[in-house]
Structure formats: structure tokens, C-alpha cells
Amino acid sequence: MTFHAGPGRGPGHLNRLAHGAGAATPPSAIASLTVVGASPPIDATNDFGDATARTGVDGNGWVAEATMPFLVASAFDPTKIALNLSDPGFDASGTTTVARTVRGGKILRRQFTPGGAQNSPMSSNDGVTETVWFSLIGDDGEFATVYAGTTITGANAAVGFYGPATSGAISGPVNGSTRPYYKPGFVWLNRQHEVCGAGGQYVECVAMHKHARNGQQVARVEFIATDASAHTAATQTASTPILSTLCTKGQPPEVYAATIPVTALTQADLCIVNAKVYPWIGDASAVLDLSVDGLNTTGTYTTANPQTTLRFVNDKTGAYGAAHASVRAGVTGGTVQSTEAASRATPFPDVASAQVAIAAFNNARGDHTGYDGGHIWLMDDGSGGAVAHDISTNAFNTNTNNKGLLEIKRSPSNTAPATIALINNNTFVGWGLSWHVDFSIPAVGSKLLRTGDASGNTISYFNDLTITQDGAGQANYEQNAGIRNVTHVGAAINPMSNGGGPALRIEVNLWLGYICDSASLGSTAVSNRAIVGCSLGGIQLSEADPATFPLMSSQDGKIVVNNKFLKNTDASRVLDGIVTTRGLFIGQNVFERAGGSSQQLLSIADLGSDVAIDNIVVTGNTMAGNRFNLLYTDISTKLKRATTRLNLLFQRNTKSDVYTADATTTGRTGDWAYTNGVDNWDVCTFGDSNGASGPSLGAWIGEYWANPTMVKVGVANVTFTTDASQNGSNTGGGTYSLTGASNAAYGTVPAGFAAFKYDIAGVARKNDGTGAAGAYERTV
Prior knowledge:
Layout: H1 11-19, E1 32-35, E2 63-69, E3 81-90, E4 95-107, E5 123-125, E6 129-138, E7 151-157, E8 168-169, E9 174-175, E10 185-188, E11 194-196, E12 201-208, E13 220-226, E14 236-238, E15 242-243, E16 254-260, E17 270-278, E18 288-289, H2 290-293, E19 310-314, E20 324-327, H3 340-343, H4 351-365, E21 375-378, E22 387-390, E23 406-410, E24 418-421, E25 433-435, E26 439-441, E27 460-469, E28 481-489, E29 508-512, E30 515-517, E31 524-526, E32 530-532, E33 535-537, E34 539-541, E35 558-561, E36 564-568, E37 572-574, E38 584-587, E39 590-593, E40 602-604, E41 613-619, E42 622-624, E43 627-630, E44 640-653, H5 672-675, E45 681-687, E46 720-722, E47 735-738
Parallel strand pairs: 1-9, 11-19, 20-21, 21-23, 22-24, 23-25, 24-26, 25-27, 26-27, 27-28, 28-29, 28-30, 29-32, 30-33, 31-34, 32-35, 33-36, 35-38, 36-39, 37-40, 38-41, 39-42, 40-43, 41-44, 43-44, 44-45
Antiparallel strand pairs: 1-2, 2-6, 3-4, 3-7, 4-6, 5-6, 7-8, 10-12, 12-16, 13-14, 13-17, 15-16, 17-18, 17-19, 46-47
């Protein structure tokens, strides 16, 4: 070990250490072993002989302290230390326990100080006792974090752990961790305020969690529906994910799905579906219960944050939705009928007059006062000719006293297309309109339509349609539009993205199966709260700064799954200024950088970020063409925790406390768990920006990796079907499925730790140790 004389001590002190009682017969086991909690030791006195007053980094379940009799000139090897752990957890039907094994990783270095203390290890001795502080690493793909609820069932030291010391059991290991278990991420794929029939309400959700295993993200999801009359439907449980049927374009994700029975619920009531999401590891505190943990848990839907309960209207008798109005251009009058077929005989001249008439029809029959639950059917010209219904000057009913959506569709009896032509950029359509007809946006400067106002308490949906945009306008809207299975094409496309300013609330509650190539090579930023199953060109992730957009919903809990982000020339940047506790969940996406500068491909809380973030989960992604930056502490002392697993990366970079132009600030250790490889298991083709694979002090790749063979496998050893990134043709729009019989991405997912049941293309994941890192599974 390295010896340092403390203040007031002469050379005789070191002499006593080298020849004193500490040179006795080697021990057969470590004297004490403690997983430290929130205040692990960092030397504050520059004296390893007096390592007593130490503060500075949150060790919370990833740092162990070991003491043993001091042996002169003996090195301690933490990789020879193993801890057997037991955690509470959940399975398909109830509770269980999960056994884990973690081992030592690396002796921690001291934190940066102007005196260069970071070049010394965190170890000390007083001539009799040696004390060492080291990181913990998962064994064979396991997760290393020790939680407050974890039980250490045993610990062992293998031969070679400390000079000539013999192996043996470690007596009385202590768990001092105070780290709570993590909650899952979540998003519904349903529309809010759907109207269901007697068959029940079908629901789908995506859930993600740090402790994914067994080929799926979580153990199970329970769905519990309650009506406004205090009746509760039978709980429905989903324990095996399936491919989404609600996502019909792009890349359908795996979902937890069920059908809510409605026989016990009151007709015409607004019902609330709660979801309880049970992770593989954790106690009751780790269960995400939307009714408790979510936002906007009662009443009508008013937030774009994905963690909220789901609303639907129970129409088991069919009476609530028995209002139908047809629309045919050029006619006068119109009558609402109880069926679509009958309404074709007495159509309305435009969509807005049909909407107003449905509200009056419902009010007159005493069923409900809004237009919700109704159906508007757009007709062709009656002779088999196409019609583009212009709603630019329509006077819509903006009543928000509704419970269910108004569905606007093409008449099933048409022989020619019926579409919407939109030119005016201030068409305000009111609450709860759900569009299923194609849109044309031909004019320069036009927008799609307004679905609300600054209050943000409105919703609108665009479903299973095509938007053709041939001008330089915007496909825009005001708060709470949902985009599902939409193809957006045209000569000049501005995607359905947020914008505006402090007085506006322009945001999306869900992009699902959205197909949009916004530029051949270029980038447009979006800050949507949930993006699932989309194929996007020139669109990168961003964030809405709460200081600039105070009316917009929280981005804490954002979930991004099964998407392709291609042709990006600029960086996706998230969580640079947003404190995050619910988490960020980025799973099984393809990120491609092409045609641009050397900017990073994706960054999470990187350069200059000075906020605390936690529960960041990035798993199963393919990132081609440039680097992945995350958890920089170049200026920050805030805690930044993340789990990155099974990603296929080109580069990964994390600036920790040794990267700074500030020679005075200490304590920049908030990312130390990550830089020491805790809960990370990725494949990196190039290493860091210097081409290094670590572990070396100052390497951007980090301080330590659990499995060095998974750090830098070589760019040429990972081959794709078509690499159009900056590492390939640089033209953008590549196909990143894996090719070859000996691709270095193969066999990199430890047995039992596949994180998904299906890959981004719907191919079954391998969970036997032969599976591939990244968004695509191997097919050979």
C-alpha cells in the first residue's frame, strides 16, 4: 500500500508501519465488511493515517468498506470479494425473493482537490489495521446496487484478495445502505376519454424498470377500474408482454394489456383505470401506483405527463354514443340520427355544424350535455368523387363539459376519399375531438389546427391518418394532442412538435407510431413526454425548460421506446436543467448521426448540467455515428444516477470531477457510481472520445467497467445491414439490424438478463446468453 505521514509526524512513523504488529500472520478472513450509506469516507485531511473525518460523495449502496490486519507490502484486490444478497421482489402473481451476487470492482480514488489527491487510492492504515473503500459490481450481468431493504446473506474472500492471506468467509457483513428501491416508468398507449361498449375497455401500457430481467421489463401490471358511482371492476393482471395492437405503424412495442370488464360499472359514468406496476426487485415502496404516485389522478385529463390514470366512458348499453351525423359539402340543414346509415340521408354541410348539432341532440334527450360520444362521418360528393372538407372557417363548439371523445371518420359507404383541407392557422376545434381522416395543409404559414388554449385543459387525437404538408407552415396545435399511427409527408414538413412561449401550452401526450421524415438531413427538436414506436427523420429529443414554458407538463417520467431517430445532424439533449426523480426511460431505440458536425448523438445531463437526476434507465439502444454523453459533473456537485444496460454504442463519455477548468471546487462526485461501472453493462465499439477503453484515471469511458471485454470491441467487429451514419456512408437513413455470423454484438446479453421479450422489429429476444446488445436481436 502507499503510506503518507500525517501532520507532525516524522519518518519514524513510516518505519513503525513497516515493522510493527501489522506484519503478523495473514488473516483467513476480513475483520469487517460494511456496505456504506449516504456518507462514505473521503479523506478531508490529506492524511491516510487519520481517515476519520471524511465526507463528500453519496456511496449509498455501491461502496464497501473493509478492514483487516495490516500486512506490509500487501495489495488488496476487491474483485476477490463476493457478497450474496437477497431482495424482496415480485413475480407474475405475488411476492418473492430474488438472490443476487455482487463483487468488488475497484478501490476508489480520492476526489479531486487542488493538491492532486485524486491520484491516491482510498485506503489507509494505522500500522495495525488496513481499511479500504471499493466499488461494487454486478456478477455476470447482475445489478450491483445494495438497497436499504437488501439482506446480505453471506460474504466471501477468495484466494489472492490480500497478499498471502488465505480465503474464507467474512463474518458479520453489515448493510448500511439507505438507498430506496426504484419505481418503474409507465405510459398508456390508449387515448384518454375513449368510449367503450359492452365488450369492455381494452388497455395497453408500456412499463420500464431498472431491474429488467427474464426477458421483460417488469414482473406484472394490475389494472383496476372504478366508476364515478364508487363501483370497482374486477382487477385484471398482465404478467406476459405482447406486441402492441394499438400501434399499427412504425415499430410496435411490447406492452402489458388487458380488457377491463364493465358489467359491474355504471352506464355513462366516467371511469378511472389505475395501474399498479410491479418490478422484479423491490418491496411495496417500489410498486408504481398511479392513483398515489401519478399526476392528475381524478377528474378529466389535463396533463401530458405519462404517469397519470386512464379515463374512459362506460357505454355498455350503447345509448351514450348513439348520436351520428354525416357531413357532405354543399348541402344545407342536417339531422342527427341514431345510426350512421340513417344520418347519410340528412347530412350537414360542415364538420362544425354537425358537432354543434350532436351536442344539442344529447342535451335534448337528457343523456348528457356535450357532443362527446358522438360520431361524425365525412361523405364523398355522392357520385364517387373525392371531397376535401375545408374547416378553416368553421365555428366549432368549444364546450369542455364532456366526458368522452367525439369521433370524426370517413363514411364507410364512401367510394371516394373524404379528407380535411386546412388553410387557416387559427381554427379552434374545442375539447375531445378525435380525427381519423387524412389532412391536407397546402398553404405557406398554415398550421394543423388549434385543439385548445393556454389553459391546457383540452385534448385532441389524430389517429390512423396521413397528413400531407406542401407548404412551409407548421403542423402544430395547442395542448394535449395525441398522435397515433400517423404518416406525415410533403415537400416541406414541420413535424407535430411543441413550440410557442410562456403564454402557450403546446405539447403532446403521446406520439405512437408516428412516421415523419422532416428533413433529408437536418434536425428539429421535440420535447414530448412519451414517444413510442415512431420512425422519425431529422427529429431529435429535447426538453422544454420550465422557466421558459411554465404552462407545460412535467417531463419528469419521460418514456421513449422502440423508435428510430435517423438523419440527425444535431444533438439530442435531455435533462440538462430538469430535476428528475420519477425518471427517464429510453429503451430499444435507434439513434443515428449523419451529415452533421462532430456534435454528440445523445446527451443526458452533460456539459454544464447542475441539477440532481435519478432513476435514469437507458437500455437496449443502438447509437450509431457519434458519441453518447451523460452525467457530466464538470461544474456540478449534484447526485446523478443512471443505469445503462445492453446498449450498442459507438462512444460513451462521462466527465467527472477530474475534468474541470475550476481548480478550487471539490465534491464533484455525484456521478461516481456510474463512472465506477455500477449497474452498467454496455457494448462500446470505439470506447471514449480518445478511443480509450478504460479503466484509467480521467478516461471518459469511466473509472471501471465490470467486464472489460464489453467496453471496446472495435468498430469493424460490429456490422449492420446498412450503416448510413457518420461511421458509414454519412447519408442518413440506415438500417441497423445486425449482420454476420460473428458480430461482436452477439453473445453480450448474460443469460437471464434479456431486458425485452421482443426487439425493435418484433423478433423474439434470446435469453440464454447468446443474445445481442442494441435495438436488434441476432437472427443467426
